Amino acid sequence: MQAAPLRATSANPALPLPSVTGALRAVEAVLMRGGQRTARRNAWTSVLEDRRRAKDRHEAEYVLEAAATRRPRAT
Q1: Is the entire prediction scored with pTM above 0.70?
Q2: Closest Cα to residue 40, out of 52, 27, 53, 55?
């Protein structure tokens, strides 16, 4: 006999189960003041923007390198 698969249920089926992100934000709200929470989010946004700029810079270097090494065609 095989056991029935486990599934998460809430006390009120009309309410959706909380997501991991939602749970982490709730814990963050309890542990940190608003200013600290805002500072942390701003710092993370800055990290993501720095990564995006680094990726763009790498792609631009690749294109410029490819253009510099291309030789004109003989006609």
Answers
A1: no
A2: 27
**CA 68 to each of CA 12, 60, 62, 65: distance values in angstroms, whole numbers, following the listed order:** 65, 12, 10, 5
pLDDT tens for 31-67 read: 777 788 888 899 999 999 999 999 999 999 999 999 9
> Mean of the pLDDT values across residues 7-26?
73
DSSP annotation string for the chain: -PPPPP----SSTTSPPPPHHHHHHHHHHHHS-HHHHHHHHHHHHHHHHHHHHHHHHHHHHHHHHHHHHPPPPP-
Given a contact cutoff of 8 angstroms between Cβ atoms, the answer to whether 40 and 32 are in contact is yes
